[in-house]
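Running this now, will post back.
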Amino acid sequence: MDGEASISRTATVTQIVIVLVFAGLAVKLFFIQVVAGPESARAADRQQRMKMPDVPKRGDIRASDGTLLATSERVPSLYADPERIANPSGVAAMLSAAIGLDPTRIERKLMRRRPNGTPYRFVWLARFLSESDAVAVHSLSVPGLHFRYEYKRRYPQGKMLAQVLGFVTQDEKDRDDRGLEGLELAFNNFLRTTPGQRTSAVDARRRPIPSLGEEGMPGIDGHNVILTIDPEIQAITEAALDEAFVKWKAEGAIAIVMRPYTGEILAIASRPGYDPNRFSASTPHQRRNRAITDAYDPGSTFKPFTVAAALNLGLVRPDTMISVTGSVGGRTIRDHVRSAMLSVRDVVVKSSNVGAARIGMMLTHQQLRDFVVSLGFGRPTDLGLRGEARGRITPMERWNNYSQASVAFGQEMTVTPLQLASAYCSLGNYGILFRPYLIARIEDTDGNLLQQNEPQELRRVLSYEAVQQIRPILQAVVEEGTGKKAATEHFTVGGKTGTAQKALPNGRGYSETDYVGYFVGIAPVPRPELCVLVAVDTPHGSHYGGTVAAPAVSEIIEKSLIHLQVKPDK
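Update: finished.
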């Protein structure tokens, strides 16, 4: 009996042990599958798969012939899988020695943890490296360090068109390349990308396995912006402007080239300049697009418009004689002309302030002010760039005889260089004013047209007959008047010099030492293909527009018309 009882107890204990073992296994299995299952699955997924940003390409900015002005190129960026890096401080020191990264910052990134205490599986360490830096990191053979190619903004033409193009920011917080200035900012909604994310299978060393495919939302490339800029004319213009800017030790300089009969801007430049590839080394003074942000008195460049308005109304003829002595409207006006009488033609050719003021007084206040407004002064041109100035015109309720005489020879109002060039285009286009424009079209990455800009006629500002009378006068300015240095070898040029005193701050009058020297010209005179403006701000050594600006206009016109294969008319 005792033996049988012992066997029975042994069997019972064995059964209990077996039950307990299976119960334990069941509990363990329940814990693994139900309690710890999701986390285990996530851990396995983190080991076998990797999420990475899918960085698309920002849109290009191109010239009219397709020349790349702003583009994005593929460059290596360094990232890490911190879980596979056993010695963060040692790796940080190695990267510092190899490619100059900040070891403290790198170690901090490698040591970052999720809220649950687990390490991140993807951390950017350095973006937009050179290929030589990538080779140096590869040579370290550190597990957990990897490269991914993404896009970096580049400006292939260097300083060319810098203030117009602007630049973008590219850092770890702004992977979509936000435009900060110029076209990059103004057209950011077209150029910008839509970042995506992809998940791919990886091997034990966290390298993607392409054969197993990828999942996720791909990024969307930005659209391409094509400009009206002719890169050859832009280069010609910038070279001529550089020469004038340096020669006259100027505070600033501006040049604009337009087609009078369309409003297309073929070239636009400001000095001083900068390289958008290294925008962090530049100053706001260098980055300012003076062609649209700065407004000056037009000075004598406005006199042809005063005469054209009087011709348009039939108040004078080119041979009408005008007294250029005595006061005008009860005020004395300073003038360099010593004659007693001049023809209307010679008032412009010899640039008489008194003569222009006297002609201006023939119009009513409303007629002259309305004509000034019709030329586009006092309002932005709506070019599409940020920071465009309106210019200033005296309100009608405060317009008086003083205003009338002052405006007639280019004072008591301010205009931007682009407004002035645009107004002169109406003289080259038989009295019709077109809206200036810089954006020709916008396309997607496949070349499909999204937006097309066509020449936009705004209004007729002068009659055909008045323009036909004023053009020979402008040609005479170059051939026998103040603009002789704007003459070219092969083409007739018409235009006007201007030497405008700069206004003092707070409206306290005009400076006796600081000037803006202008020349604005159209060519060839019989059928103008180009309108060119050059303005030199605060030159030293001379301040007359015929000296500091006219030679640059001559060079731009001659070389640009030859480039456009325009038949010489001289």
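The chain has 20 helices and 23 strands. More later if anyone needs it.
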